[in-house]
Amino acid sequence: MFKDLNGKKVLVTGASSGIGACTAELFAGHGATVGVHYHSNIKGAESVAARIRKTGGEVFLLGGDLLDTSRCDTLIDEFIDLTRGIDILVNNAGTFHLNNFLSIPLQSWNDAVSLHLTAPFLLARNAFVFMKENGGGRIINISSIAAKYGGSDESIHYGAAKAGLDAVTKSLARAGAPYKILVNSIQPGVIATNAHRKIGRESLDDRVSKIPLKRAGTPFDVARLCIFLGSDCGSYITGQIFGVTGGE
After folding, report:
1. What pLDDT score does 193 carry?
2. 37-64 confidence digits (pLDDT tens)
3. How does DSSP assign 46-105, residue by residue?
4. Which of 165, 171, 215, 221 has its CA 20 to 30 A from that of 126?
């Protein structure tokens, strides 16, 4: 079903763990050459790369702090230099810090916007330039259910940035359509990753109890949709926002 992914060049940001790691491994399992971007978790990135190589996949590690806009400007070029192209960009890098809106430091607000909105926009724009001149491509932005509901009073900054990312998705999709550049967003709900475990077991259990399917999602649940959108199966899908939320 996904044979067309064989030989594709895929860059996944924030791929040292969680959704990003699973997405990188799944693309590699279908024959894609994968770039595993990481910030500080080099051990996690090396483990992902080792698992990919063990199954015969080709993988490159690319480090960098995406709060640094200059790294956003060089990451796509570095990946293209290593692989001679980019077919799919998965903007997944992010983090999740709780701060009540009444006391949130301005720096925390700015960092949330920089990492979850500015960085993926810059990366998408740089990938867009290459894709426009080389027959098209796919950009998949990992958003959040917080963009749909606005987030809690402790995650307003995160939800606002992700809502902005969804708006960017729709704008880029319209701009990319003439060049066969398809752009979509995925809004994961509660996914069983370290990011959600930070809220504490009792709070997490209470949150999961409100999900219609009564369970947290897995990184694999999100990664499979990335595969679908990146493959020929998604060739008539652009400008869409998909929830992977267990029914929320």
Report:
1. 83
2. 999 999 999 999 999 999 999 999 999 9
3. HHHHHHHHHTT--EEEEE--TTSHHHHHHHHHHHHHHHS--SEEEE---------TTT--
4. 221
* DSSP H stretches of helix in 101-200: 106-113, 119-133, 145-149, 156-176, 194-197
Mind telling me the catalytic residues?
158
Is-contact 169 238, C-beta < 8 A?
no
User: End-to-end alpha-carbon separation of the chain, Å?
Assistant: 29
Per-residue confidence (pLDDT) for residue 199, from 0 to 100: 57
Tokens at 144, concatenated? 């959040």
Long-range CB pairs of 96-100 (<8 Å, 24+ gap) are 96/155, 96/158, 96/195, 96/196, 96/198, 97/158, 98/154, 98/155, 98/198, 98/199, 99/154, 99/157, 100/153, 100/154
**Span 182-199, pLDDT tens digits:** 999 999 999 988 765 555
Domains in the chain: boundaries: 3-237
Return the SS3 of 9.
Answer: strand
State both tokens at 21: 């790691």
Q: What is the pLDDT of residue 233?
A: 97
Structural contact between residues 194 and 20, judged by C-beta atoms closer than 8 angstroms: no
Give me the residues of the chain with pLDDT under 50, please: none
pTM: 0.95
